[in-house]
Every structure is written in C-alpha cells, then in structure tokens.
Amino acid sequence: MSEVAYKHVPTSNSDLANVQSYLTSIKQNFQELQSQWDEVKSLAATALPHIQILKHEDIVVPRQALQELAAEADQVKMLLPRVANSNLISAKAKLNKLESDLEKTNKEINDLRTEVVHWKTQAETAVTDVQREKKGQLELRVDVQELTNQLSQQSEFCSSLGAACCTLLWRVSRQEETIQDIVSGTRSVEFLELVSTSVQSYLSAYKDDHWPDQRTDEAIFIISLCGIATNIAASAFGREHLATTSHGRHLVDTFITFVRDAPLDKSANMKVLMLMTLFNVSINQKGVKYLQSKPGLVAVLGWHLKEEHHHECQANTLRLLLSLVADEASGLRLMHELKENLSTSVLQQLTTSSQADVRDLALDLLMDIRRFDCEQ
C-alpha cells in the first residue's frame, strides 16, 4: 500500500489538479489493495479448513528434528515385525509346550485316577479277605487251643507214663542180663537215639529259660533215661557197645554237651549220672581213646570242676579226669591241657572238702600232676 501524505490543500487550479491526481492514485492503490485482500481472503477460505492455527501450548518442531523422527519411525516400522515375529514364535513355542505338558498332566491324572480306582478295589478286596482270614484265624485259634489242651494233657500223660516206665527200667537195668537184652535187642538203636534226642530237647527247651524243678515228671523221665545209660555203661558189654557204635558215641557227645551247657547247680542230678556214664565209658580202652580225641573235653571238665559245687558232680568229674590222664599214650598231652585249664590251687582247695571221696580224688589228681612235673 502506498503511503498517503496529508498536506495543505491549495486553492488554485493547479493545486486541484494535483489533488485530483492524488485521489486517483489513492483510488487505484485502494483497488489494488482490495483486489489483493480479496485474493488473500479467497486463499484463506480455501486453506483454513486444513490449517490448525497454533495455540499458546503448542510447540514448534524444527523440520530437521521432524525428519529424524520420521526416519526413526520408519526404522521402527521396519524392525517391529521382526521383533514381534520373534516374540510371537517364542510365545507360540511356550504355548505349545504348555499345551503338551497340560495334556501329559491330564493323562497322568487320568492314569492315577484309574490306578486309584484299581487300588481301591484291591483294598476293598483285601479288607474282605482280611476279615475272612480273621474269622478263619479265630476259628483256628479255638481249634489250636483245644488241640493244645489235648496235647498238654497227652504230654502230661506221656511224661507221667514215661517217667514211671523209665524209672522201672532204670531199676531193672541194674541186672547184667537186662543190660545185655537192652543192648543186643532189636530196639537198642532206637532206645539210645531216644535218650540222645530227649536230652538234647530238654537242654534246648530250658537252657535259656527257667530250669524246671527236678521233681516234675519230665525231669524224672530224663533222669531215668540217664540212669539207664549209666547202668548200660557200668556193664562191660554195655560200655563196649557205647564206645564202638555210632549211636553210642552220639550219646556220649550229647552228655558232654549237656555238662558244658546246662546251668550249674540246677541240673546237678542229671550231670551226676552223665559224668558217671562218661567215666564208665573211659574204663573201656576204645572208650577212653574216643574221649581223649574229643577237643576241649579236658577244658570243659576243668571249668566244671571249678564252677560246679555239687559234691557228686565234683567227684565224678575228678574220676573222669583221673581216668583220662592215666592212659600213657595220650596222658602227657592231656596233662598239659589240664594244667592250662585247672590251677593246682583249686585242687588243693578240694583236698580240704568235707566229702571224703572228693577229698581223696582231688589228692590223687594233685599227686599225678606233681609226678608229671617231676618227670618233666
């Protein structure tokens, strides 16, 4: 727009012409401005719907920064599918694994449920069987109790009968003719086996338990059997039989075991007879050799002489020891073994015993030991 100057208007014709020229120029300029303004308004009317006028809270961003931001956006657009696809594949793999684990777990649960049903059925069957077995066991217990009572009665009867019969046989066996009949009879082997088995069973039953009273039928039965064996060994024919036959030697071994394992004092009545049987067997030449061949016999007899206080047991033990060491062939070896297991102080103490037979036998054995020492 042209600048307009305000001047003093002349009154002459030339001045009016100048004023008219100025007005024409102003009008022309105004028309141009009006035309430009119309053009601006037209452009504004076209552009305003697409242009958002900045407000005071808006920020002007430089074109370069906007270009950098656009470049980064393009890069993100390019990388985003790769990252998204990688995460998607990983998530899909995990999902597949979880689905597989879930399917496996469901299968295991179903298997466990089937197994639970199976075992529940088995348990119910077992409970039924147990109840049936309990009922059967109860019935069996009643039957066993009845049989036990019957067996006890029969055992008592048999013990009483055996004690009576063996007591009578013990008395009868004192006769030489009776001994020959017993040993040479068809039942001699069975009888000696009966003696061995009965003594072994009695020792096994009561060795670690309460030793029964010696007046019971069972004890009398065993004592009678031992007495019969003693009478057999008292006979020359009988001790020859015991020393030379297998069942006779088995009886000798059984008696040695009983002397070693039976409780002291309580079993004295039985051991008196057994030691006498062993002594009678030692009188036989074959019998003494068999006894001398038994390892540890002298040690057992030495221990028994020290620990057993029953005077008849002591006397029979001394007799057996004297018989064993008297043999020249094996006497020296057994004398060494005797000195290792029996001190002379024990024998000296026995020489002061109130029982004459114990005192004399201990003195004889002590003299044999001293004689042996002098000879060495």
From TrEMBL:
GO CC annotation, single: cytosol
Keyword Endoplasmic reticulum included in the entry's annotation: no
Q: Where would one find coiled-coil regions in this protein? A: 88-122
InterPro entries attached here?
Answer: ARM-type_fold (IPR016024), HSF2BP (IPR039584)
- SUPFAM superfamilies in alphabetical order: ARM repeat
Protein's UniProt keywords contain Coiled coil = yes
State the UniProt keywords alphabetically: Coiled coil
Classify the source by domain of life.
Eukaryota
PANTHER family per UniProt: HEAT SHOCK FACTOR 2-BINDING PROTEIN
| Protein name from the UniProt record | Heat shock factor 2-binding protein
